[in-house]
Design a protein that fits this description.
There is one protein chain. This protein has 5 helices and no strands. By secondary structure, the protein is mainly α. The radius of gyration is 18 Å and the shape is elongated.
Length: 95
């Protein structure tokens, strides 16, 4: 739903829930060409949204964010480069 910018200078666009669901369905169609999902020994496809959409943001930040210090985050080039640039994208400028 958020995505990793993979070293790009800009954030990935925020997609609607409908677009995310369409993308997941497209991935499933592609995988069915190569994998069998039939029977007890068939491949299993899991959608992260099945469990991520139910997570409350504040609970996540409280429980997970405490493990990531500012020093740790500044060691990441993607974070440090955005801070050096000082620019903000429209989606990141709102609170």
């Amino acid at each position: 739903m958020v995505g990793d910018p993979s070293g790009k200078r800009e954030e990935r666009p925020v997609l609607s829930l409908e677009q995310i669901d369409r993308n997941a369905q497209g991935i499933a169609r592609q995988l069915k060409r190569f994998l069998s999902f039939e029977g007890s020994t068939g491949a299993r496809l899991r959608n992260n949204a099945d469990w991520l959409r139910g997570i409350n943001l504040m609970d996540f930040l409280r429980d997970t964010g405490k493990h990531f210090t500012l020093s740790f985050m500044l060691q990441k080039e993607s974070v440090a480069s955005r801070l050096r640039r000082g620019s903000r994208t429209p989606s990141s400028a709102t609170c």
